[in-house]
Amino acid sequence: MQQRSFGSLACDVSLIGQGTWLIDGGDHAAAADVLRKGLDLGMTHVDTAEMYGEAELVVAEAIEGRRDEVFLVSKVLPSNASRTGTVRACERSLARLGTDRLDCYLLHWRGQHPLEETIAGFEELRQAGKIRSWGVSNFDEDDLDEALAIAGPGAIACNQVLYHLEERAIEHAVIPWCKKNDVAVVAYSPFGQDRFPGPQSRGGRVLQEIAEAHGRSPRQVALAFLTREEPIFAIPKASSVPHAADNAAAGDFRLTAEEIRRIDAAFPRGPKPYSLPMI
User: Fold this and answer.
1) In which residue ranges of the chain is pLDDT below 50?
2) What CATH code would you report for 12-197+227-254?
3) Which of helix, strand or coil describes residue 203?
């Protein structure tokens, strides 16, 4: 599994990680087994959130006895993101996760509380050793500018955003901004929302052809394309052990320049939207 430096935090994190949205909807023990298999395969970047129901409890089961292997991320809901609310929300997440610290703690999206309050809460948690770093999620360029003006250079570790082959809005301004300011970009829902392109579509055929040429899967090709640039990581969710193994195998796969050109043509990024998509 390839690793990359995680923004200004300057620590190496697995290129492909594990998302946990809706992971609590079935058998918790089976879901924890999938996460453990992902850890075994090098997907040590595990992302969760207080909004994700009992997902933090599933993660706690999966990482028990292995906490030091994991780059653990959770998120505070905007409605809880006052200064004191951020601290309390983090403490609740730590209790559910069975740990004394997070590696990164994110504001899930902009809400009613001023960013100054949320960032003050993050800094209080960081100084107390309860979080190693903090970041944001679903922030567009203007939001990032505001956060940078408040916190100063080097404070924002990452921006977690929607990014898949059919939704490339972050390529217009967000990725360039993050590159310039040494902020990691973490792609959530990298396969889209239950609409991964099949072989009947033009784009799906391109993915299939490239996959067959390398003895890979189309999803591995998609992950390799999305993480082709230096600041980008991806956190796909896996519903089974074979699915986790397929995701992990993308962590050592690189496309040629011509293959990137073909995928780019098959899935054009389109014009810059008025606002950054979240779903």
Assistant:
1) none
2) 3.20.20.100
3) helix
